[in-house]
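for the writeup, i need someone to sanity check this before i put it in the appendix. the sequnce is what the collaborator sent (i think, or maybe the updated version? ugh). structure was predicted straight from it, no edits. if anything looks off just tell me and ill rerun, i have time this weekend
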Amino acid sequence: MRFLHTSDWHVGRTIRSRPRTDEFAAVLDEVVAIARDQAVDAVLIAGDMFDGRASNPDAERLVFETLARLAAERIAVVAIPGNHDSAARWDALRPLLDPLRVRLVPFVTAPDKGSVVEIPARGSEEAALVACVPFVPERMFGSAASLFAGSERWAQDYAQGMGDLLEAMASAFRPHKINLLMAHLFATDVTLGGGENAFTVTLDYAVPPARFPAIAQYVALGHVHMPQVVRASPAPARYAGSLLQLDFGETEQRKSVAIVDVDPDRPASSHEIPLRSGRRLSEVSGTLDALRELAPTLGDAWLRVTVRTDAPVPGIADEVRALLPNAVDVRTEYPRHEEEVAATGIVRLDPREQYLAYYRTKHGNAPSPELLTAFAETYDAVRGSGGDA
């Protein structure tokens, strides 16, 4: 059987409050075309189809039209929610999507309660078993584990406990079948994309790839935005990565989907197919005169600009935006004397990390994913509203 593995669509994401609807529409067109042209039996979507739990109408239209177009091509879909999705909302939509052969597993359940989906091949008698593990927040791990017999003996540590959960899911696999595992999680020893929610790619959420079940023929992963093979896994495992460059940590990445070929009783083989849609994200720096010379070469890329001056210049950010309309992030850089830094007490730290450290100090544990997402969205919206920050 042949599968298209994708994840982390994040439809609805803006870039510093600038909409990217046209970019998402174009790249989802590519995904449908690749699935059709590669004659895949099913598309595996490993979470984060939307960028937020309360998605806007344009984002919903794009996602549901894409699922309907795959159905029109007689291509099945298996999907799980990620940390950005509303599992409850997906659960409510299941009766509408099942007739389109879109199989959603919104919550972690035991294998015999619906978390393992059987997908028949097109044109043969083969079938695949896809064991599905949606994102499990740290605070909810105990609730998810309680669904499994014998879980009271599982380790309470998140990493070890998630390993036990993955092993329990693999108990549904059968000889002479095609056995796949799909999960939205953060594996250790991988390279982050740079646009992920910083709060859910910490050691609190890290799962060692060595705990992936070796009997899986392929492990389809979502959550990390950089496409990559997970080398430390005993089974073939891959992050599909995001569809677009979502933030400036992803400027050097080529986005792709993975095509996975697998036969019963053999490890899967997979390869990437590049995606060409979407505007580049680019970082540029220089004096105002240097930026003026550079402007004609930048095309339609979204820009993070560092403008170098000899001293603070009031209104410099507005000048840069007038020169470079696609500049969504403008920073100034000028010499600062040590006594100036000491007097202001300014320390350049990532505000997201500052918030996480503050919350842990204040409350003794990590904030909920909902609170972290709200902070990140608010912070990005403030950054996109103007000013030199």
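The chain has a mean pLDDT of 86. The chain has two domains: 2-274, 281-383.
thx in advance!!
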